[in-house]
Amino acid sequence: MLSVATQYPSFVLPIPRENAQTEGPKSEGVQPAEFFFMQWGFHGAPPRPDSNDIFGLSKASSNPHTSTILFTPLQEYKLRGTFATPHLVITHYPDLADTHGLVLLRGEITPATSEQDTTGDGRYLLSQEDAQLLALGVQKFYLWTEGHEERMELLKRFHIHPEEFQWEDMLKHSGINT
């Protein structure tokens, strides 16, 4: 997944919205969706401290790099750019990947202020269900296994030929309108 993410560090993922206001007539069989812009970030492992000399240079760590994914509503990203508030931050901690075949994942949903309440409960910008859907979307498009050629092509097209990218194809392969 990390090799794909370094090659294609941004993408859009849809979240279904039942009661969304849409422009024009509603199409049968097409569920409204909100798109989230996702960005990968990669961070070096912290250096290993040397217990003998606290002011000396630290030794390089053998731990792999951590990665972070920021999820921001596409409309907010278009409006505010890099100043947009991410609604979800997922961090992968691969410290145990080599020894145990395990990568720890931590998801943090951004708390809402009173005027930002989008979940209806007044506490967070995104519901837990939506956060899970975004995490599953990352797996759908960034874990390339057999049978995922069309999703792989969609991800490549988003970066290499953005003028050919069709959001309708994205909805089809994300599983929202099935």
Q: How is this structure best summarized?
A:
By secondary structure, this protein is of the alpha+beta class. The protein has helices at residues 2-7, 74-80, 97-100, 128-142, 149-160, 167-174; strands at residues 10-16, 33-43, 66-73, 88-93, 104-109. The chain is built from six helices and five strands; from the N terminus they run αβββαβαβααα.
The overall strand count is: 5
Q: Report the structural category.
A: alpha+beta
Order of helices and strands: HEEEHEHEHHH
Q: Any low-confidence stretches, pLDDT <50, length ≥5? A: none
Q: Kindly report the spatial arrangement of strands forming the biggest sheet.
A: 1-2-3-4-5
Q: What is the radius of gyration?
A: 19 Å
Binned, the helix content reads: 25-40%
Average of the residue pLDDT scores:
82
Major sheet characteristics: 5 strands, antiparallel
Distinct helical segment count: 6
Overview of the molecule:
The chain has 6 helices and 5 strands; from the N terminus they run H-E-E-E-H-E-H-E-H-H-H. The chain has 178 residues and is an alpha+beta fold. The chain has helices at residues 2-7, 74-80, 97-100, 128-142, 149-160, 167-174; strands spanning 10-16, 33-43, 66-73, 88-93, 104-109. A 5-stranded antiparallel sheet has the order 1-2-3-4-5. The model has no long low-confidence stretch (mean pLDDT 82).
